[in-house]
């Protein structure tokens, strides 16, 4: 299935739901700009010198008003940009329309099918006969996966003549990926090799993808340098101080009218995000229980007077289940959901969609799906007539069921890091500084992100004298 694209007046390609929403999208982008001082500082500091001039950047990251500010910061710095979302539900259509109208080639709409999602990825990576992008901004690693799988298939085709077989896997998304690669292989048998030859590097924003990339580095299969912006100091150490942690489970509260006070809420995982959600649910009046595999985190929860049990202990008693263990598979199974109370709410705050067993739920014999709000479905089991409410089809709830993360969060703790990582990779592209490895964001760039933010807040740093510095 090919993706039918259109062209803006500027001749940029796009595929969005409704271009008539562009003016409203522009208004939302302008509001976001006011809350994203670090990115706006990037424009004034780097805009005049155009350090990214000539760079072709592909983004695989949620298409929101905040992302638009990142995209337009990159174009102000001289880059050309093609973009797709990293989640089928996370695109506000007005934001996608505004980007397509004004600044970049974009392929995204809310409610994409999996086939549409991967076709959008394919188009975002397609820069024509001269290869792919120079740089990739990644959130989850899907663009990285497509290139690696493409090169593997091209090598097999050259040596054996065999095309990739989508039926060789039972993973629905991998089946689509292999289909895309197979469909283009005979007409362009070196497509992904050409992409890799041009690619300077990638900046990656999610913990699970970074962990996967470290494994690829260890086994020698990583094809290009990666800067890990997820573990930058400003993100990991200062989010709480900056007010950047989510203050409540926004997607949960937006998707369904539910009174949290008095409910029993289970948070699956007491890592950084789990702590935030446990605290927010507790503050809202819920009795919070966490499930945890790590004894130290379990002890931390107990020190906050939060009970630690297994999911099996509480599955039939709780009212709300929030999975925070990003990157994990099968945390909540269909058997768990069958044992839950009628109308128990199930959602996922991690960036991947494997934590909740949606394939098992969707294929359960006789199960009935009732959609009563966008991305809010009640699944009724035939033998009990009891149902569970699943938000955003098990995908990231805070972007599936709300517009986006707060602008200040994305500016200070993610998007400016991405811009600095892209600039670093581009400026060092001919020096040999970065090999086919995963790197931390350099310390001087972490500090640069902080200083860019401070400038717009009217702060003035004291400068050390040589004596003090010594």
Architecture overview:
The chain has 470 residues and is α/β, with parallel strands linked by helices. Helices cover 43% and strands 15% of the residues. It has 20 helices and 17 strands. It has helices at 22-34, 37-46, 65-76, 93-102, 114-125, 142-160, 172-185, 191-198, 207-218, 233-238, 250-255, 272-283, 295-303, 311-314, 334-338, 358-362, 397-400, 407-427, 443-456, 466-469, and strands at 6-7, 13-15, 56-60, 80-84, 105-107, 135-138, 201-204, 226-228, 264-268, 287-291, 307-308, 320-323, 344-348, 368-373, 376-380, 387-391, 438-440. The strands form two sheets. Strands 1-2-5-4-3-6-7-8-17 form a nine-stranded mixed beta sheet, sandwiched between helices.
Short key terms for the protein model shown above:
470 residues, alpha/beta, 8-stranded mixed sheet, 20 helices, 17 strands
Number of strands: 17
Helix content: 40-55%
Distance between the termini: 64 Å
Arithmetic mean of pLDDT: 90
How would a crystallographer describe the biggest sheet? Answer: 9 strands, mixed
Q: Ranges with pLDDT <50 over ≥5 residues? A: 241-247
**Distinct helical segment count:** 20
Radius of gyration: 23 Å
Shape verdict? globular
Proportion of residues in extended strands: 5-15%
Sheet/helix structural class? alpha/beta
Strand order of the largest sheet: 1-2-5-4-3-6-7-8-17
